[in-house]
Each structure stands twice: as C-alpha cells, then as structure tokens.
Structure to design on (677 residues):
C-alpha cells in the first residue's frame, strides 16, 4: 500500500471517528454513574479537592475531567469530552502494532475500532472503560514494540501506561494477568532455564523481560488479595472488610489487619525493588520512578490527600474482592454470549474463525492475540459483575484479532487477477445468496396458500443452488482461496454496514432510551427536560441559583440530581421514605420518589401544583435472565425465538415493556403558571 494512501486512510478514520463521537454529545440525559463522575470532578475543579474512593474506581478520570472543566467549563458536553478524545485517539493505536498486523491489517483494525458500536457508545459516556480500552491497546502495542525493538524507551512508556491503567480502573489487574500469561508462555524457555539456575535474569530475552517488568510493577499492589484467606483469621481481624461490615470502608483492613496489610505491602515492595535491581539496575530505577511518580501523584491528588497512597495500594483491589459476593448487575453467566453478538458480531465472527486458523498455522503473535481474546472473554464471564460497558474490554482483543485476519486475507490474494477471472461475480452474487439463505431460514409458511409457499421456498433454493454452482465454477477458474477470500471480504462489508447502523442507532436514536442492551438503567429524558423548567423557574422568580429545591433522596434519587442542581446552593436531599415529612418544605420545587407520593400529597396540599409524573430512570427488559443451559442453547434451534431475535437484531423490537421507576414534581403555586406547566 502506498504510504500516502495509508496516511490518508488513518486521517479519514480519525476524522470520521472524532465526528461520530462528538456529534450531539451533550443532549443525552446524564447517566447515574456519569453524574457521580462529573459531580466529583466538578468539586475538584471548583477547589473542593478529591479523595480517592474505589467505589468510583481510580482517580485518573476525575483529574482529567476536572482539567476539561477548567479549560472549557462544566456541562454534559464537556463531561463527556475526555472519553471522546480517548475513543478517537484509540483509532491510531494500531500503528504501534503495524509491524505485526501489517500495513493493511493495522488500518483495518483502526477501521473496526472506528465503527465498533460498543466503543462508539462508551466513547460518548463519562465512564472509565474507554480510557481502559486505550491503555490496554497501548500496553499490548508497547509490549510488541519492545519485543521487536528492545530499547528501554518502550519500557519507560509501558511503565507509564500501566501506572495510568491502575490509576483508572481495577480491571488493570486482569489485563496485566492476561497479557502477562501470554508473555510467560512466549518466554517459557528463559524462565525454565532461570528456575534451573542455567540463566540469570539479566540474560532474559525481550518477552521475558517485559513480563518481569509487568509482574514487578504489579507486585506491591496485589497484597489485598490476601483478603481471600481472612476467614482463617480471628473475627475481629479483617484484611478486606466485606460490604456491610461496621466501622469503616469496604475493602480496607480492620483491627490488627492494618499491621498485617502494611507488612504485606512493604514486603512485596522490597521484593519488587530487589528483583528488579537484580534484573537491570539502571533501567529498573527509571521504570520505578515513572510508575510510582504517576501512581502516587494521581492517588494523592497532587499530594493533597496522602491517604490515597493507602487506598490505592490496598483498598482499590480489596474493595472489588469484597464486591465479588455482591455480583452487581446480577447478570447470568451467558451474558456476553448474548450482548456481544448483538453489537460486535463483525469482530466476533471473524475472530472465532481466525482463532481456529491461527491456532494451527499462526505465529507467536497471532497465538498471543488468541490467548488475549479467549482469556478476556472467560475472565469477564467468570467475574461476578457483568455490565454492558465491560463489552469494551471483551470486544477489543476480538477487534485486533479480526483486523489481523482480514489484513492477511486482503494481502494474500492477487485481486487484479481474481477480478479479471470472474471474481466480480462473487461481489455481486454473494449478497443475493446470503439474502436467499436468510429468507429460507426465516421463512414463514402460509398455511392458507401452501402451494404458493412451497413454490417460493423452492425458487429461493434454486437461486441458492445456481449461485453455489457459479462460485464452484469461479473456484475452478481462479482458486478456492481467491473465492473464499472474496466471499469473506463481501461478508465483512455487509456486516460492516450493519455494524455502522447498530452503532448509530445505539449512540444517537436510543442514546438514553433502553431499547438497547448497551443502555443500562439509564436516566430518562424527562430529567433534563425538567431541569430546563427548573432553570426557567429560577429566572421567573429572580432567585436563580439561590432558589430552594427539595429532592427526595430515597432509592438513590440524589443522582443524577446532584449534578444537574450542582449550582443551586439551597438544594436539600431528605429521604422521604425513611423520614415521613410532617410539614411542607420551604422550597419552590419539590421532587418526590414515587413511593413517597402518598405521604407528600397531603403535606403539600394547596401550596403546590398537583404532582406531575415523570420517569426517573428506566431499563432494558431483561427477559434473557434465568435460562437453564438447555433453554439457552435451545433458543438456537427454536424458529419462534429466532424470529423474535431477528426482529430485535434488525429493528430493536421488544416483546416486553421497558422497566422503570417514577418520580413526581411539584411546583409552588405562586410561581407564574407557565413555569410549572
């Protein structure tokens, strides 16, 4: 491929990806999780500081989002701008793997990243997962750059990326473990000779060295894993306090557990430093400096919250170990078998085929990609918490593996010769053949016109037979490889069109409407609409941001209102479910939980307008839950279920209503009528 075409391709993909991620960015109602991240970033931006809390994962996104607020102001648009920048920049990361993927493979991988529905949606969503996708792909790219070109600068960059990963989200432990295992398998000869005393650490090759660096950087942070053995300790000693344990933070040590935790971390840190010095003293000290400078700076919010060192090195992992029993989301084991084919069917299909091919005929790189994809899918399937935003992590290795496979297919065929010998007929005939196969598989038999139904299905089968004969003739005229390669390219283009459509519908048409499995317990559009009314009330009364507002905090209704009402200084958040009101609040606007309406209506009396119902948050009707293995796999051969699945896949038709919880808004009657209507 000419260099100018390659550069032009990346620039075109970057421009298209940035536009897709930026378009209509601020209009979607802000999600519960987004509001948490945006609110605490706003507090940091306004000078109120920030304290690391593993509940909201690492500190990186809060510092980054606060920086965006400082530059451009605070809004829903700017709250999502950092994910846009990372999601767009990710398109260029396959360049790090260009030597291994090939010029065409790297460009195709960039294209798959651009159009991926999961990556597109969560590049427009103020959560950590798109940052983690960026760090993960950068980590894999830097690993292979070092293997191919073992210069220390790649290790220094890798150290920074790993530090940023740990400062972003705790699934960095899983990522390091998975890619680290791949490296251990590649470097097994070096490791084996070292174990038998036949080779020193200094003599390890690039794969072994980078595996060692990853392991040693992670070592001081895994001490909280000892919490899985705390059942053997006295009851008053906790290494990682479980959810609901009185007297402190979840995942933190208790009692004598503090001394044990400190001893474990210090021991692991000493071991990390010592082994690294035995490996290569000079580079290791620089690697340590890069890693810990980034890690400590972010976890302490630039040295203003020194307790962040402890929460980062122990509680970050400890919290999520404690949360495994909670199993947030309560999704079934087969969750990713359902959601991945709905959105990431293109890389999933290609990656499955590529895995079988490369497992037999691949090299160490393609087998590394297989291991990365398979272990990632297994790890997230085993993990108790399963969420749609985690599809970002499951899909990413599939995208890279699919990009490699498609690149190999495209570059190994003489396309000019194939086209002149009839390959063009595959481009024209395969879509028709696939359409006929589709119609036959999902044919609805008309009992009132059996002859017509019989004739139609046989006509379609005849068309399929003719097209198969044509493809066989072309295979004899050119080669089977050329025909199969052409068919794969055509199928990829068709799936690419459907992928773009799925991403566009999810990101724009259904961005805050949970007809999509990607949309999880989403704030409804009623909330930002009501916020506009509240702003008008503030203007009409002349009170503006001094206006008093009451929001019932029951069932977590504080969020996302804490974000939307962040500038209203006189906002109260009583819990009307726990504390039944006895008098009307001195507020212009009252927003009550649906369960509190029966208690609130008599209190507000004639002072307020009648409560107006609005949807607070809503969710996808999860009818796929609680299937037995036989029911789940039986769906594959059940025509009726297939028809329903196809209707959802193509048109997002649901057989059940959306779930949701409501709230009621009351306006003080002294407000001009148009504000409360």
């Amino acid at each position: 491929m000419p260099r100018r075409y390659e550069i032009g391709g990346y620039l075109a993909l970057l421009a298209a990806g940035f536009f897709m991620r930026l378009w209509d960015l601020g209009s979607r109602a802000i999600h519960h999780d987004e509001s948490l991240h945006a609110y605490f970033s706003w507090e940091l931006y306004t000078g109120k500081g920030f304290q690391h809390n593993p509940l909201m994962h690492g500190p990186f996104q809060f510092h980054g989002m606060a920086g965006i607020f400082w530059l451009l102001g605070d809004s829903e648009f700017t709250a999502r701008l950092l994910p846009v920048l990372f999601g767009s920049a990710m398109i260029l990361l396959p360049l790090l793997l260009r030597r291994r993927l090939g010029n065409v493979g790297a460009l195709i991988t960039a294209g798959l990243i651009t159009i991926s529905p999961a990556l597109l949606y969560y590049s427009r969503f103020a959560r950590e997962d798109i940052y983690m996708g960026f760090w993960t792909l950068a980590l894999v790219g830097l690993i292979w750059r070092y293997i191919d070109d073992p210069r220390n600068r790649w290790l220094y960059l890798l150290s920074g990326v790993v530090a940023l990963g740990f400062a972003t989200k705790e699934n960095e432990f899983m990522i390091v473990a998975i890619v680290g295992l791949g490296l251990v398998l590649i470097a097994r000869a070096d490791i084996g000779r070292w174990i038998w005393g036949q080779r020193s650490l200094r003599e390890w090759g690039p794969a072994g060295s980078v595996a060692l660096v990853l392991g040693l950087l992670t070592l001081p942070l895994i001490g909280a894993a000892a919490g899985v053995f705390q059942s053997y300790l006295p009851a008053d000693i906790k290494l990682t306090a479980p959810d609901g344990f009185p007297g402190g933070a979840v995942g933190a040590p208790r009692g004598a557990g503090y001394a044990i935790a400190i001893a474990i971390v210090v021991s692991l840190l000493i071991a990390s430093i010592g082994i690294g010095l035995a490996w290569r003293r000079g580079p290791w000290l620089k690697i340590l400096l890069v890693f810990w400078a980034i890690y400590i700076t972010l976890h302490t919010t630039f040295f203003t919250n020194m307790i962040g060192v402890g929460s980062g090195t122990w509680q970050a992992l400890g919290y999520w170990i404690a949360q495994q029993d909670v199993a947030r989301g309560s999704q079934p084991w087969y969750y990713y078998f359902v959601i991945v084919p709905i959105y990431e069917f293109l890389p999933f299909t290609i990656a499955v085929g590529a895995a079988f091919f490369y497992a037999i005929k691949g090299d160490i790189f393609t087998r590394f990609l297989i291991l990365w994809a398979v272990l990632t899918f297994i790890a997230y399937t085993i993990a108790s918490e399963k969420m749609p935003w985690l599809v970002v992590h499951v899909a990413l290795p599939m995208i890279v593996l699919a990009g490699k496979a498609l690149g190999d297919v495209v570059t190994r065929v003489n396309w000019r010769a194939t086209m002149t010998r009839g390959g063009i007929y595959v481009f024209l005939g395969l879509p028709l053949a696939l359409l006929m196969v589709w119609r036959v598989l999902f044919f609805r038999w008309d009992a009132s016109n059996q002859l017509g139904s019989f004739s139609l299905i046989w006509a379609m089968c005849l068309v399929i037979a003719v097209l198969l004969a044509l493809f066989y003739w072309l295979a004899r005229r050119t080669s089977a490889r050329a025909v199969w390669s052409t068919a794969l390219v055509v199928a990829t283009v068709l799936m690419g069109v459907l992928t773009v459509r799925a991403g566009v519908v999810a990101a724009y048409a259904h961005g805050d409407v949970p007809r999509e499995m990607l949309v999880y317990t989403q704030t409804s559009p009623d909330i930002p609409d009501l916020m506009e009314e509240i702003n008008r009330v503030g203007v009409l009364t002349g009170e503006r941001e001094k206006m008093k507002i009451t929001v019932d905090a029951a069932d977590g209704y504080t969020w996302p209102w804490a974000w939307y009402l962040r500038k209203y200084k006189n906002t109260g958040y009583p819990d009307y479910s726990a504390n039944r009101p006895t008098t009307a609040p001195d507020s212009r606007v009252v927003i009550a939980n649906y369960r509190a309406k029966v208690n609130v209506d008599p209190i507000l009396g004639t002072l307020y307008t009648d409560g107006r119902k609005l949807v607070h948050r809503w969710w996808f009707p999860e009818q796929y839950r609680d299937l037995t293995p036989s029911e789940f796999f039986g769906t594959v051969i059940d025509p009726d279920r297939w028809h329903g699945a196809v209707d959802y896949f193509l048109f997002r038709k649901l057989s059940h209503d959306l779930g949701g919880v409501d709230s009621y808004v009351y306006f003080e009657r002294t407000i001009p009528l148009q504000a409360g209507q």
Q: What stands out?
A: The chain is about 60% helix and 5% strand. The mean pLDDT is 89. The longest helix spans residues 480-509.
